[in-house]
Amino acid sequence: MASPSLQMQLSDSELKLLQALVYQExxxxxxSRRAHFLQDRLQRRLRECRLDSFYSYYRxxxxxxxxxxxxxxxxxxxxxxxxxxxxxxxxELFHKHVLDDLLRRKQERHDFSLRMWSAGCSTGQEAYTMxxxxxxxxxYHCLRNPSGHEWTLPKPLIPPPWKVEVLASDISYSVLRAGxxxxxxxxxxxSVDYNYRLRHFDKVGDRYAVKKPLKELVHFDFHNLKTExxxxxxxxxxxRNVMMYFDEAEQKRLVEKFSRCLNAGGYLFVGHAESxxxxxxxxxxxxRDTGTAYQKTExxx
Length: 301
Ligand SMILES: C[S@@+](CC[C@H](N)C(=O)[O-])C[C@H]1O[C@@H](n2cnc3c(N)ncnc32)[C@H](O)[C@@H]1O
Known about the structure:
This protein is an alpha/beta fold. The protein is built from ten helices and ten strands. The chain has helices at about 10-25, 35-50, 55-60, 65-75, 90-110, 125-145, 175-180, 195-200, 210-215, 250-260; strands spanning about 115-120, 165-170, 185, 200-205, 205-210, 220, 235-240, 260-270, 285-290, 290-295. The protein has a seven-stranded mixed sheet. It has a three-stranded antiparallel sheet with strand order 3-5-4. Helix 2 packs antiparallel against helix 4 (about 65-75). The radius of gyration is 21 Å and the shape is globular. The mean pLDDT is about 95. Bound molecules: S-adenosylmethionine (SAM). S-adenosylmethionine binds near residues 78 and 175.
């Protein structure tokens, strides 16, 4: 059994075994630039488990009893940086063009449901941002296209007959718990303007709690993007700042899966430093100002 302070030696072959296991389990690719990060996290987990070699740790991870430890390791390897209203130019495009187009096409088909997915949601700020913008776009849409539905007071956040669902998924249980809890610190709220704070948050002590009507639109669930079965029938997928940790082969597989998870004419948003260039021909890139998104090529008329 290893002493807690001892730094164990990680051989090249052990590193390769563990790199391959992590890749196989969640798609994250630790190339030479990021190998030191992987090594550091492996050292920590090895000490925590009080094992005396990385090979024993690997054996634990692939065993039936090691499933919880594998989840912990993956959790330790994720980067969870996120914020409300991240990448404003892209959100302008989402709000003004994408939602407008989706609501108009849906209204024509008398389909009053909007399904969106924040894939790799971290602590939930992206999913709540999507819900706030969808609620805004819908109020505006319904003003221009009155449905004749009677509203009960207080006025609902989502005007009937419309329904909005946002699925927020991640591979890390701790970030999913935080998203579900939906309370944010002053510094996490820095990018939320006062109009949105007033409408969608309650001040509770020194934190901000998402109000019930907005919270009810967002549902948190565990999904590993590496697996084959992923949530279907989405109108919009945000998968931002996740693919950058995958290699090209895994990015291609993921984009292929996303195209199957989207309704015809649905939209995919990726991070500022990510692109679908060279990965697929199933999407067309659209852009306004500096914001970009991708639309699935087959569109329902
Ligand atoms: C940098 S955060 C991005 C959060 C948010 N999308 C944004 O752009 O602000 C990346 C998130 O992807 C998650 N992630 C990484 N690999 C994943 C996988 N295979 N399946 C699901 N989520 C994954 C991480 O746990 C992390 O919370």
